[in-house]
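dumping this here before i forget
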Amino acid sequence: MEMYVDGMNLRKIGRQLKVHHRTVALWVLDRAEASPNAPIPQDVKEAEMDELFTFIGAKKTKSTF
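structure:
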């Protein structure tokens, strides 16, 4: 689970541990289901938008028929 959380993909973890990547996926799924739910704040005080929003918002999609 530590390797997965650190950003390693399932196939690479499988190669490292010498198990099938589907086995790793099942381990991750089992661990995720056993974990407590993330806390949800009552009030949102601040929200951030990432660069993808800026890119999409800046695209020119008008057609010139």
